[in-house]
Amino acid sequence: LAGSERFSIILEGENAYTAEELEAYGLPESYTPSELLDMVIIRYALSTNSFQRYMPVTIATDISDETVAAIMENKSELQGIDVLEDSIRYYEDGIYFSSIIGYTGRASAEELETLREDNPDYASDAIVGKTGIEQYMELQLQGTDGEETVYVDNVGTVQEIDEESRVDPVSGNDVYLTIDKDLQETIYHILEQQVAGILVANIENTKTFDYENNTDRSQIRIPIYDVYYALINNNIIDIDHFSQTDASDTEKNLYAKFQQKQQEIFDRITAELTGDSPTVYNDLDDEMKEYLDYIVNELLTDTLGILSSDAIDTTDATYLAYTRDGTISLQEYLTYAASQNWVDISDLSPEGNYLDSSEVYQALAEYLVDYLKTDTAFSKILYYYMLQADTISGQELCLVLYDQGVLELQEGDDTYDRLASGSLTASDFMISKISSLEITPGQLALAPCSASAVVTDVNTGDTLACVTYPGYDNNRLANNMDTEYYNQLVNDLSQPFYNKATQQTTAPGSTFKLVSLVAGYEEDVVNLDTSIECTGSFDLVTPAIACWNRSGHGYLDFTSAVEQSCNVYVNTIGYQLGLDSEGNFSENQSIQKIQEYASLFGLDKKSGLEITESSPHVTDQYAVPSYMGQGTHLYTTSQLARYVTAIANSGTVYDLTLLDRVTDSQNNVLEEYSADVESQINLPTQLWDALHSGMQRVVSTHAQFSDLGVSVAGKTGTAEQETNRPSHGMFIGYGPYEDPEIAVAVRIPYGYSSGNACLVARDIFAYALGQETAEEIVTGAASSETSNTSTD
C-alpha cells in the first residue's frame, strides 16, 4: 500500500533523486518520518481519486497569506492547484464553554450509521458533533451539502458541468443556550482564583508530609517538593526535551544526572530479576518497592498485559506470598508465574517459538529492562526520587520553565537571574507564580486542582452557568484536530475532558441533611419543635458517630439543627426510622426510608442536562451515616443544583435544561425549549418555611457572606473520601432569600472545607445578583481568603 514507487518517494537505490534534482526543486536531502507520513497521506488521497479528477483533494489547510500569494502568482504553472476559502468552526472563548458545547470532527463509520438513520444524506466525509451540545443537537446544526452534475471522460477529466443541476448548500440551524456568557466566564475565574488560593495557603517548605500519623484532614499540607515534582509529573516540563540537541545547559545537566540514576536503578532491577541473591520484597527499601510495584502492577499487568489477570490464580500460595505477605522476592514470583503459564509470551517470542519456563523468565527480564529505558512513567518515578535526594533541585526545574517557554520573561524582569543566582528561592518563586496564576492549579494537578459550579433559574429550571475547572480549548480539537494537544489533554492528571460539574460524583456531605430532616418530619419522628440533645457523639450505633462539634450543640430544635448542621440530630432521625415494631434497629428499613426521600427530591435521577452526565447513586449501605450525607451517596454538582432549585422554589423538581431555542439561518424561531417539570414535592408550608429559615441562618453564621449586601440562604457540606487527601468542600444555596431568583451549587474536590466553597458561592451571588462587577471580583490572582475550617 505504501510502497515507495507508488508514492514517488524514492530516496535510495539507483532510481533515487540526484543531488541536482533535489536542488532544482528545492527539496531537502532527507525527510523526517512525520514528513514522509504527510506526503504519503496526501498522495494516497490523490490516488483514490485518480479516476474522479473532478473531485477536489485538500492537501493543506490554514495556509498563510504568503503561501496564497505564491500559489496565485504561479497558478499557470501549477495545473490543477487552487486556493479555496472554506468555513470552519470557531468557538469564542472556548475554554469556558468547551465542556458544554463540545467540538466537531470527521464522522466515524459508527457515527455515520447512526446519523443516517435520521438523515440518509450524510456524506462519508461529514463533519459532525463529537461531544456536548454539538453532538446532542447535531441534526439541527448540520446543514445540507450542495451538489452539481459533472460529465467526465473515461479517465475522469471534466468535459461539461450542468449549471442547471446546481443546488446550493443550505446552512444548518442555530442553537441558542440558556447559559449567561458573562456569568459562565466570571465563575470560571472565581473557581480558578479560589483553588489557587487554597494551594498557596497550604504549601509548606518541606519534602514530605506525614499522612500516616495525621488524623485531621484540615491539617494536610502540600510539600513544596510535591509542587516541584508536579512540573514533571503533569508534563508542564517536557523531560524528553532534556536529551535534545537544542536543550539548554540546565536541561542537559538534568539529563546527565538522570542517565546516571537510571543506570544505577537498572543495575539494581537486573540484580533482582536475574541475580543469585534476590531480595525478599519486605526487605527492600521504599524506593525499590515503588519501582517493583510499578513493574508488576502498572507495566506487566495493566499496560502490557504480560501478566495475565485472567490466568492468575489469586488464591495461589506463591501469589499471596508476594502480593499480600511480601515474603518472597520478585524473581521467585515471576519465575513461578512463568512456570504456571501466567505470562503471555506473545510479546516475548513474537515468532511463536516454544519457550520453556526458564527461557520465558529470561526473555521477560531482558524485555523489561529494555522497555523501561523509554517508559516515560517510569522515568518520572526516577525523577521523583532524584528530587527527594536533592540530586536535582527545584531551582533547576523552575529555570527550565523559562528554557522551555512555559514562562516568558518580560522586558526588565530579572526573575530568571535572581532564581539562577539563588537570591530568589525556588519555593518563593513557585508560590509567586501560583499566586499570579502564571502557573495554574489545573497545570499542577495537585489536590485541589479542580472545581465546579452550576447556577439555575429557580423559577424556570434554565441553567445559567455550568462551569468546570480546568477547561480546554475546543478550537484545537475542531476542524483539523491537533492530535498533540488532544494527547496532552488525555494524559493531563487534572482531567480537563472530565466535566467536574456533570460527571464527577462525590458524597454530598451535610448538604444532604435537608433531605434527612424532611424524612424525619414527614415520618413523624420529629416536628418543628422537637428538641434533641447533641452531646457531641451519637452512640446508639457501633462505632459511635461524632458530631463535627465534638463538645456538642446541646439541645436543638428542627430549624436550629439546619443552622448548626448537627450530625446527632439527623443520626437520631436515621436511627428512629430504622426501628421496627419491636424496637429493633433494621439497617435495610432505615436505608429504604432515606432512599424514598432522596427520590422525592429527584436525587435518584440525572438532572436533565443535555450533555454527558453520570448517574447518581443513592446510598445503599451504612444507614445512619447516610443521613449525614455519607454512606454510599454519590451525586454530581448538577444534581445538587437541581436539588437546591427544588428547595428554593418550594417543591418544583425540574429536568434542568441548557437549551433555549433553535432558529434558522434567517433568525426565524423554529423551536423553543423549556425545562420539563419532573415532579412536585408536596410538603406543608410550615416545613418549607423552617427549611428556608434554617438555610438563611446557616449563611448568617458564616463570615464569608457578611459583606454580600443581599440576603441569601444555603447549606454547607464537607465530605471525606481519602485519608491522605483533604475533604471535599460543597455549598448549595439560593438568593435573594425573600424572592429567590437563582440557585447555586459549588463543589471543590479536595478543597479542605465547605468554607472555601462558601467563598466561591459568595462571589457568584455578588456578581449574579448585581452587587459587584466582574472587574471587582476577578483579580487575576489567587484568592487571599481561604478557610480550612468546617462547621458541618
Essential attributes:
single chain, 792 residues, alpha+beta, three-stranded antiparallel β-sheet, 29 helices, globular
- Anisotropy-based shape: globular
* Percent range for β-strand residues: 5-15%
Helix-strand makeup class: alpha+beta
- Note the main sheet: 5 strands, antiparallel
N→C terminal distance: 66 Å
Query: How much helical structure, as a percent, in the residues?
Result: 25-40%
Poorly predicted parts: none
Q: Work out the radius of gyration.
A: 31 Å
Number of strands: 20
The strand line-up of the biggest sheet is 9-8-20-19-18
> Quick check: average pLDDT?
93
Number of contiguous helices? 29
What does this protein look like?
By secondary structure, the chain is of the alpha+beta class. The chain has a domain at 249-381. The protein has 29 helices and 20 strands. The strands form eight sheets. It has a five-stranded antiparallel beta sheet with strand order 9-8-20-19-18. Strand 8 (451-457) and strand 9 (463-469) form a beta hairpin. It is globular and about 100 Å long. The mean pLDDT is 93.
Topology:
Blueprint lengths: L18 H6 L8 H16 L16 H9 L20 H8 L2 E3 L2 H7 L11 E3 L2 H5 L1 H4 L5 E6 L5 E10 L6 E4 L3 H22 E2 L17 E2 H10 L15 H26 L11 H18 L13 H9 L4 H10 L17 H16 L3 H13 L5 H10 L11 H7 L4 H10 L5 H4 L6 E7 L5 E7 L13 H9 L21 H10 L9 E3 L2 E2 L6 E2 L7 E3 L1 H7 L2 H10 L10 H14 L22 H4 L10 H12 L3 E4 L3 E5 L5 E4 L3 E5 L4 H16 L12 E7 L8 E8 L6 E7 L5 H15 L5 H4 L15
Parallel strand pairs: 6-7
Antiparallel strand pairs: 1-2, 3-4, 5-15, 8-9, 8-20, 10-13, 11-12, 14-17, 15-16, 18-19, 19-20
GO cellular component, one term: plasma membrane
Organism: Candidatus Blautia gallistercoris
Membrane topology: Single-pass membrane protein
